[in-house]
Write a structure and sequence with these properties.
2 domains, Rossmann fold, 7-stranded parallel sheet, globular, alpha/beta
Length: 306
């Protein structure tokens, strides 16, 4: 399936920006839907094939009158309350479900052939083993519960309205335009400024995927993903978190001090965030292009050029 015209909500973060670049490289025209007066609007790549559409999440139904009715794919990334205490704010997370259902209705009105939603490993809840698309989900916060509910409700809506539905559970992602609060971004900035970096013991088993690889995966599931499928987004390569941090330390600034075990684990800390990506590879042909180290080098290049 050719993705000629594409809508992306939440286009200013790591995934959205990377996907816009990926789609532009494959000839797509992109309608980037962002909050009015967004401070991050400058993150959106500049191109005659990128149309910025300012529309708040709670007014997403207005897109029906703002975008041409000839859209091939609708990527829904916009979501409020993604970190901190807001992840456990029931009212905020319930609004996300309602807004996502409205996004589905908009996709139908725009004639979309496929609706792709961005889920999260939080849908599974705390885990001590690898998770796959068919594993039971037992989220332990409102964020994960809302993502899971959204995946199921948008799937039913799309099935009722003849739209192909794809749900993508993102595990551990990093890349340009990611939030300043993430472990990777906050650590890189501290290392660049030669600040002491404190961490947990780093015993967790992790699987990081670079945003440019995630963008490739998103493009491929839009083109080739099987209707009704859940895909886990990760690299397929795992190691202990401590090893990731040590590798990043050597690339960014080996002269700064890093300390393990100075920060306690969170309550209900997930000790295994690894994913089975076999159906993603089988259905779409996805293979990651970046190792973790290559991603860090690429990210560092972008950060130091700003």
């Amino acid at each position: 399936m050719k993705l000629k015209n594409v809508v992306i909500t939440g286009p200013t973060g790591a995934v959205g920006v990377a996907l816009i670049r990926e789609l532009l490289n494959h000839g797509s025209t992109v309608y980037a839907v962002c909050h009015k007066n967004s401070k991050r609007i400058g993150n959106i790549p500049s191109s005659e094939k990128v149309h910025i559409v300012e529309c708040n999440l709670d007014s997403i139904g207005d897109l029906v009158d703002m975008i041409p009715h000839s859209i091939d794919a609708f990527y829904h990334f916009a979501w409020d309350g993604t970190y901190g205490q807001s992840r456990n704010d029931a009212e905020t997370q319930c609004r996300n479900i309602v807004d996502s259902m409205e996004a589905c209705r908009v996709a139908k009105e725009l004639g979309c052939k496929v609706f792709v939603g961005a889920g999260s490993q939080s849908e599974y809840g705390p885990s001590d083993r690898m998770k796959g698309p068919k594993d039971v989900c037992l989220p332990d916060n409102f964020y994960g519960a809302a993502k899971l509910a959204t995946s199921q409700m948008t799937r039913v809506y799309c099935k009722q309205n003849g739209i192909r539905h794809i749900w993508c559970r993102i595990f551990s992602l990093f890349g340009p335009c990611d939030g300043e609060y993430t472990m990777i971004m906050s650590s890189i900035r501290k290392m660049l400024h030669k600040e002491v970096c404190d961490f947990t013991k780093g015993e967790q088993i992790w699987d990081y995927i670079y945003s440019k690889d995630a963008a490739k995966a998103f493009r491929l599931v839009g083109q080739r993903g099987i209707d009704g499928s859940v895909y886990c987004f990760a690299s397929g390569q795992t190691r202990r978190l401590k090893e990731y941090i040590e590798s990043m330390h050597q690339i960014v600034n080996p002269d700064c001090e890093i300390r393990f075990g100075t920060i306690p684990y969170y309550e209900h800390q997930a000790m295994n965030l690894t994913a089975d990506i076999s159906n993603l590879k089988k259905d779409t042909g996805f293979e990651p292009s970046y190792t973790f180290e290559e991603g860090i080098v690429d990210l560092l290049k972008e950060l130091t050029q700003k």
